[in-house]
Write a structure and sequence with these properties.
Elements lengths: L1 H21 L5 H4 L2 E7 H11 L17 H15 L5 E7 L3 H9 L9 E2 H5 L5 E8 L5 E6 L4 H4 L11 E4 L4 H8 L5 E4 L3 H9 L6 E3 L8 E4 L2 E12 L4 E6 L5 H17 L2 H8 L10 E2 L6
Parallel strand pairs: 1-2, 6-7, 10-12
Antiparallel strand pairs: 3-11, 4-11, 5-8, 5-10, 9-10
Helix pairs in contact: 3-4, 4-10
């Protein structure tokens, strides 16, 4: 009689133990409706300010304050995900991150990069990353020549030969940026891998300029704490490449997110919404207002 009473309890305990052992094997990403995402803090702050409480899917006009190329990227990729049927939400982890994100993507600890990649950079990691269709096509990417507002050498720039007296800063890790700058007749090109350190160097005039996207809603001026950089009012540089979203092949959600992005980008491209977004943001500039100082043959 005692054995008959204990047996159901023993079976119940056995099932409890089995379930406890099985649960940790379930990938965290499938057990929650959100995915952890790392993002640079200044981009995230401008993203929140621009949205002003809206959903990314509700944005159909990209004019206004706080808009910048990486904010447009962040909204476009989320619109593509939603249109492609991806349902999970993101839990943001802002911080001072840059190349760390690439390592996290390779390791499968980060699902995707909100900041689009140059095709040359993405191809170098093609064994670990899915590469989307172009979000910014070849011939659409132009950069401002940003310098300290008091830098007279940059202010008086009037022809490509004038670069012979200028110094610039970038990193060879950004292949297309580096290729563009090495194609100019610069006095010197400094290597600095961290973006914020590059901005500090230009602010302190240890280097004369750096390339950054145009930000017409902010009068093409970049301000972060004591750093203030402004773009040359007339000249811009053309970068010879296309930009794409990248998704980690090693993340549990990677293939699903990649397929959704491809489907969503196809819809957005067919509707003309991608180019319109970058034009409204001023990132694809009105070329009647600027002179491309290093035009590439088409």
């Amino acid at each position: 009689m005692v054995w008959v009473k204990i047996k159901p309890v023993a079976r119940l305990l056995q099932w409890v133990v089995l379930v406890a052992l099985w649960l940790p094997a379930i990938p965290y990403v499938y057990a929650t409706e959100s995915v952890e995402m790392f993002i640079r803090d200044d981009v995230y702050e401008d993203y929140l300010r621009f949205l002003n409480g809206r959903s990314p899917l509700d944005v159909d006009n990209f004019k206004g304050h706080y808009i910048r190329r990486d904010v447009v990227d962040m909204i476009i990729v989320q619109q593509a995900l939603m249109l492609g049927g991806y349902k999970k939400t993101f839990q943001y982890r802002p911080g001072k991150v840059n190349f760390r994100n690439t390592r996290l993507l390779e390791q499968g600890k980060l699902l995707l990069s909100f900041d689009s990649y140059w095709l040359a950079d993405a191809k170098a990691l093609a064994d670990k990353l899915f590469i989307s269709a172009p979000v910014i096509r070849k011939g659409e990417y132009f950069a401002g020549i940003y310098a300290n507002p008091t830098n007279e050498k940059v202010k008086t720039l009037s022809r490509i030969e004038d670069f012979e007296k200028l110094t610039a800063v970038s990193t060879p890790r950004w292949r297309t940026d580096w290729q563009t700058l090495t194609g100019l007749p610069l006095k010197e090109l400094f290597i600095e891998h961290e973006w914020l350190a590059q901005a500090q160097m230009v602010h302190r005039q240890w280097a004369d300029f750096m390339m950054m996207p145009l930000m017409p809603s902010l009068d093409n001026a970049y301000q972060l704490e004591d750093i203030r950089l402004v773009a040359h009012p007339k000249f811009i540089l053309e970068l010879d490449g296309s930009r794409h979203f990248v998704v980690s092949k090693n993340h549990p959600e990677g293939e699903r997110a990649y397929q959704a992005i491809e489907k969503g980008l196809s819809v957005l491209r067919a509707q003309g919404r991608i180019k319109k977004a970058y034009e409204q943001a001023g990132f694809i500039p009105d070329l009647t207002r600027y002179t491309v100082i290093n035009p590439h043959s088409k």
